[in-house]
Design a protein that fits this description.
The chain is of the alpha/beta class and about 300 residues long. Helix content is about 35%, strand content about 15%. It starts with a helix and ends in a 12-residue tail after the last helix.
């Protein structure tokens, strides 16, 4: 959410130096971080919320203690982010509170926390890169539009088919998908989160009924290495799950970065570093450490089925 480069440098000097640094800078707002535009636009959707409550709620989860966390809270106010809830767990991982609080997504730059949360079945992602903040992406179809892009296998769906691709090769994968094109995939680690986005999209469509000038802002894209004939099973799965997807790029080996540099989503989720590394300086990129592609790298592999 925020750029904590200077704070991290102070932390390397020890906890006392860190406390002194945060106290001295308590009134200095933190600068936006890689995921700031995504969070800002996500929260902006609450302007169409009904009296039943907000469409989106965001918690700040932090290893700070409540005192050193004061700077975080004042920074939220400075940037006019409507985040009022925070959990400060001095030195402890904050993700164990996700299930009780019914959270749909955990984002962090702390790899150990993300790996451990994913292993417990929590929808989680490791924020990568140094994507520039403050410059609007090249495609902006409407004020405040929020573009969220996902890989398919190992992110929205599980990685059972990808495991066949890795162990038996592309022909076996294509045959599996062709013969099972009407069999939905099992949900993957971010299934819960994309379901939540689809609920917001439906709310937006309902809102347009009484507001003719309103242009829906949430745009969901799938950017996948699948191509025909494996595309059909992915589309049928999305339809079975009743998800709203606006764009689908079935690239069949074409580098994803070529599409992402044009699409410029506010955040992109993939389970492979190889797809994220070429674009992480231009697009807020999130590694989902799940499945067979991460097993080869020694990362946490399997998550508990969708909770």
């Amino acid at each position: 959410l925020f750029d904590l480069t200077d704070s991290h440098a102070a932390f390397k000097g020890g906890i006392t130096a860190y406390r002194d640094f945060q106290k001295a800078h308590e009134d200095v707002p933190l600068e936006p971080g890689v995921a700031f535009p995504f969070i800002q636009r996500l929260l902006g959707l609450n302007d169409i919320a009904s009296s039943g409550g907000p469409l989106v709620e965001v918690f700040v989860l932090s290893r700070n203690d409540p005192v050193t966390g004061l700077r975080v809270m004042s920074s939220l106010e400075h940037h006019a982010l409507s985040i009022t809830r925070a959990i400060f767990t001095e030195g402890q991982s904050p993700y164990p509170y996700m299930e009780e609080l019914n959270m749909s997504l955990f984002l962090s730059g702390n790899k150990a926390d993300v790996d451990a949360a994913m292993a417990l079945g929590f929808p989680s992602g490791l924020v990568l890169g140094t994507a520039a903040v403050g410059t609007e992406p090249s495609i902006d179809r409407g004020h405040g539009e929020l573009r969220v892009a996902f890989d398919f296998d190992g992110v929205l769906a599980d990685d059972a088919s990808e495991a066949v691709n890795q162990s038996e090769g592309l022909p076996a994968f294509q045959h599996l998908e062709s013969t099972n094109k009407f069999t939905p995939h099992n949900p993957g680690p971010l299934h819960r989160f994309v379901q939540a986005l689809s609920r917001i999209q439906r709310t937006e469509k309902a809102h347009t009924a009484g507001n003719a000038d309103y242009v829906p802002r949430v745009r969901v894209s799938i950017v996948t290495a699948r191509n025909a004939p494996a595309h059909a099973r992915a589309v049928n799965t999305l339809r079975e799950w009743e998800l709203i997807v606006n764009d689908a790029f079935f690239l069949g080996g074409v580098e994803k970065a070529k599409v992402l540099r044009v699409l410029r989503p506010h955040i992109f989720f993939d389970d492979q570093h190889g797809h994220l590394d070429p674009v992480q300086h231009a697009v807020a990129s999130v590694l989902v450490p799940y499945g067979v592609m991460n097993a080869a790298q020694g990362t946490v592999v399997e998550a508990v089925p969708d909770r």
